[in-house]
């Protein structure tokens, strides 16, 4: 087993996330918003999509060495059919022939100017023209039915469940929505995976690599950027924000000065400058970064670090304002009057009461970070060019729109995957904000009920 | 008022010093000029002499902070910090690593940036506010629900796809406008049409949602209810009262970004090859021209601080309740 830096941090993140969720669910005050969240079908569906993405990302974060001493991940093992079956250059989704014509040497020695057959995509067909449509149809139908059948069986088991409480839970709109969503995800994923043993379901790119595989590998990068950045940002924002609001005076002045300074530097330029510095550093210390994977990983980690440094100021300001309000509350005043030390007051009385702001802003920031990665990669200050990421896919595909006929599949794949992740994150963020923000109107209505 | 502005200007000085020191540390201490020279000249087979020549040419062959052999004040002035960083305060940006005068480059490239950014901002503002008012007008109907769904969908699409899609469909398939490029003088409008339209569309999702929350906060207030009670129609109440009062946060939100418009938009300009400051910055980043990046960082911070100051002043102008002290 090989543990990269980002892998280790992802494991840490999963551990802290689990502890956080466990401790949050034990807090009385948070039970109502959590229940409201669970009752919202849209929130639960988007959470399901997010969890599916997260599982794929996690599978891609468990690295080990294979027989050839290459570092591969669990996802690579699952996708070995796509990983190994590279073609010469572009080919359309489900194509049996290459995108470009070339000279083919026939069996009798003569040459012909035509589209050559792919080495892997549709290689099992003897006569692609007549068999192709039927083969694709029957293969996808069969795989889809198998996936749907699995889900139908689970659904049947759930339906037959006699336990009264579980029955009520399974009949709720959220559970139904989640089940429907899972049905679609499982059957479609199963179909795509089954088909990709015979075809390139999303085509191949310029060097003949499977686009579906690239898009799957990019999930991890997107999640790492979205989540590890929060891991960097949260401690800074929470510690500084609460301290500024609680102690006021010179502490407040210094912290305000720090975040105004950081805010005033255009964040793109700060990121660019830092990434340039890392590049220079790595170029001058080639011995420490001999492995391509390690280099890319360090750069990804550093990108998260610098994104975290540029993005903590907003949350810090919110927390400062909230703490300023909270410290004048009677219960905090009472705690101070009773002689509770400032540290205890902070941990017991202030911190739990600003957690909803932290939670909301973490979920809200996630989608914008995923989108930011694409833009940064486009300017060449994002992830390493060898890392699989949607930004890199778009970056290398943007000139392909000018080709004739248009090479649309790389862009479409990146678009669909990114859109699904960001849309789910946005919808979930809205639901979290509605549930946890005490100022939202329908909360009071729920309390009264 | 005047004393307040002076005090704010004085407060800006330590901020700029901090920005300056930060960039100095980032550009010269973390990586020495030797590293930069090696980067520019290519990693391998670089002689010590070549590095020294490069450093001398670009003025990096000085000590960082303190030049001991020199006499008097030159101990301070003949250093990299003074030559490269402190001079930025006088807006003397110096010479870029490829030998061009950064100051005149900036003055020249500012205008195309502005020509793109200002119309994008104004049209975007108009479109967003109109749509948001419409959504608020139809609140608690299916129109609002549909608008919410559309907004979230639009928000979830990466800006890169708006640009690529716009260039492909409008520029290439329909052939309505040139795909990219820029013209002299008023001829440039043909080239600006598509980028402005795209940045407006790309901003609709988050913009409409933001203005909608602003309007919704106002719409439930007592004075609006009074206005309705005295017989004003919903349209009149919205335009006469809600819009006017919501203008305060809208205006101040716009004022803070006004100075930053000079910096241009990075991706827009590089996709449409508009010779503004945004594409200038991207080129500098790609060529690893540290002098330009450093100047742009400083310029950006100055403009941001100016924006903050303008915001505070505009508060007093639009909202008579606010007093500066």
Any overview of this molecule?
The complex is a heterodimer of chains A (449) and B (325). With 449 residues, chain A is mainly alpha-helical. Chain A is built from 17 helices and 4 strands. In chain A, strands 1-2 form a two-stranded antiparallel ribbon. Chain A has a two-stranded antiparallel ribbon with strand order 3-4. The longest helix of chain A is centred in the middle third of the chain and has 37 residues. The C terminus of chain A is likely disordered. By secondary structure, chain B is an all-alpha fold. Chain B contains 14 helices and no strands. In chain B, helix 6 packs across helix 9, helix 9 packs across helix 11 and helix 10 runs antiparallel to helix 11. Chain B is globular and about 85 Å long. Chains A and B meet through helix 10, helix 11, helix 14 and helix 16 of A and helix 1, helix 2, helix 7, helix 8 and helix 12 of B.
What's the average pLDDT of chain B? 82
Number of strands of chain A: 4
Q: What's the helical proportion of residues of chain A?
A: over 70%
Write out the CATH superfamily name of the largest domain in chain A. Answer: MetI-like
pLDDT averaged residue by residue of chain A: 85
Q: How large, in whole angstroms, is the Cα Rg of chain A? A: 26 Å
In the CATH scheme, the class of the domain at 102-324 in chain B would be: Mainly Alpha
CATH third-tier fold name of the domain at 102-324 in chain B:
MetI-like fold
- The order of strands across the largest sheet of chain A is 1-2
Rg of chain B over CA atoms, rounded to whole Å, is: 25 Å
For the record, the CATH architecture of the largest domain in chain A stands as: Orthogonal Bundle
| CATH topology category name of the largest domain in chain A | MetI-like fold
Secondary structure class of chain B reads mainly alpha
Give the DSSP E fraction of chain B (strand runs of 2 or more residues). Answer: under 5%
Secondary structure tally, helices of chain B = 14
- Contiguous low-pLDDT stretches of chain B (5 residues minimum) are none
């Amino acid at each position: 087993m090989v543990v990269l830096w980002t892998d280790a941090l992802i494991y840490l993140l999963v551990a802290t996330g689990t502890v956080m969720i466990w401790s949050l669910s034990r807090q009385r005050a948070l039970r109502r918003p959590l229940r409201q969240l669970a009752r919202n079908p849209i929130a639960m569906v988007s959470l399901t999509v997010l969890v599916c993405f997260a599982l794929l990302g996690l599978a891609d974060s468990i690295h080990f060495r294979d027989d050839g001493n290459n570092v591969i991940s669990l996802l690579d093992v699952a996708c070995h059919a796509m990983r190994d079956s590279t073609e010469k250059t572009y080919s359309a989704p489900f194509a049996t022939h290459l995108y470009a014509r070339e000279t083919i040497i026939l069996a009798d020695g003569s040459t012909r100017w035509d589209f050559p057959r792919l080495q892997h995509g549709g290689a099992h067909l003897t006569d692609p023209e007549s068999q192709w449509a039927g083969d694709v149809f029957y293969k996808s139908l069969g795989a889809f039915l198998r996936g749907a059948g699995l889900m139908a069986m689970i659904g049947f088991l759930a339906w037959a469940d006699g336990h009264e409480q579980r029955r009520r839970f399974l009949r709720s709109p959220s559970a139904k929505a989640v089940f429907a969503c899972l049905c679609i995800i499982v059957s479609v994923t199963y179909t795509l995976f089954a088909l990709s043993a015979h075809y390139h379901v999303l085509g191949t790119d310029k060097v003949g690599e499977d686009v579906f595989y690239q898009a799957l590998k990019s999930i991890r990068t997107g999640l790492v950027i979205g989540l590890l950045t929060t891991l960097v940002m949260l401690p800074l924002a929470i510690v500084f924000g609460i301290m500024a609001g609680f102690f006021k005076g010179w502490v407040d002045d210094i912290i305000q000065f720090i975040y105004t300074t950081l805010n005033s530097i255009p964040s793109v330029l700060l990121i660019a400058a830092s990434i340039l510095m890392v590049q220079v550093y790595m170029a001058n210390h080639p011995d420490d970064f001999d492995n391509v994977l390690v280099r890319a990983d360090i750069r990804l980690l550093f990108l998260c670090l610098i994104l975290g440094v540029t993005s903590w100021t907003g949350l810090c300001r919110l927390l400062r304002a909230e703490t300023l309000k909270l410290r004048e509350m009677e219960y905090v005043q009472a705690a101070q009057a009773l002689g509770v030390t400032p540290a205890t007051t902070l941990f017991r009385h202030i911190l739990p009461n600003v957690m909803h702001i932290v939670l909301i802003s973490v979920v809200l920031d996630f989608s914008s970070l995923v989108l930011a990665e694409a833009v940064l990669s486009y300017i060449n200050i994002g992830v390493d060019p060898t890392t699989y990421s949607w930004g890199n896919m778009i970056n290398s595909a943007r000139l392909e729109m000018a080709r004739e006929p248009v090479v649309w599949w790389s862009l479409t794949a990146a678009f669909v995957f990114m859109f699904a992740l960001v849309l789910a994150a946005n919808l979930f963020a809205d639901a979290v904000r509605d549930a946890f923000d005490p100022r939202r109107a329908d909360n009071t209505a729920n309390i009264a009920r | 008022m005047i004393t307040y502005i002076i005090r704010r200007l004085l407060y800006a000085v330590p901020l700029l010093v901090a920005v300056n020191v930060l960039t100095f540390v980032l550009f010269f201490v973390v990586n020495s000029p030797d590293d930069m020279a090696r980067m520019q000249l290519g990693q391998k087979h670089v002689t010590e002499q070549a590095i020294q020549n490069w450093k001398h040419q670009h003025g990096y062959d000085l000590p960082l902070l303190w030049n001991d052999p020199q006499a008097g004040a030159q101990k301070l002035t003949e250093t990299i910090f003074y030559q490269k960083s402190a001079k930025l305060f006088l807006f003397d940006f110096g010479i870029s690593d490829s030998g061009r005068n950064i100051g005149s480059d900036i003055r020249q490239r500012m205008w195309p940036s502005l020509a793109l950014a200002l119309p994008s901002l104004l049209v975007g503002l108009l479109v967003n506010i109109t749509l948001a008012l419409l959504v608020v007008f139809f609140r608690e109907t299916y129109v609002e629900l549909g608008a919410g769904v559309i907004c979230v969908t639009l928000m979830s699409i990466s800006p890169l796809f708006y640009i690529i899609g716009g260039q492909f469909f409008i520029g290439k398939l329909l052939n309505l406008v040139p795909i990219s490029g820029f013209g002299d003088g008023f001829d440039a409008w043909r080239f600006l049409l598509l980028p402005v339209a795209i940045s407006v569309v790309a901003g609709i999702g988050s913009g409409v949602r933001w203005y909608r929350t602003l309007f919704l906060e106002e719409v439930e207030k007592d004075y609006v209810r009074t206005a309705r009670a005295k017989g004003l129609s919903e349209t009149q109440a919205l335009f006469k009262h809600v819009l006017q009062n919501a203008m305060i946060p809208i205006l101040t939100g716009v004022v803070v970004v006004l100075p930053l418009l000079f910096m241009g938009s990075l991706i827009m300009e590089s996709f449409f090859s508009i010779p503004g400051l945004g594409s200038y910055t991207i080129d500098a980043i790609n060529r690893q021209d540290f002098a330009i990046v450093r100047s742009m960082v400083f310029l950006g911070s100055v403009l941001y601080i100016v924006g903050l100051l303008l915001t505070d002043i505009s508060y007093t102008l639009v909202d008579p309740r606010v007093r500066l002290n």
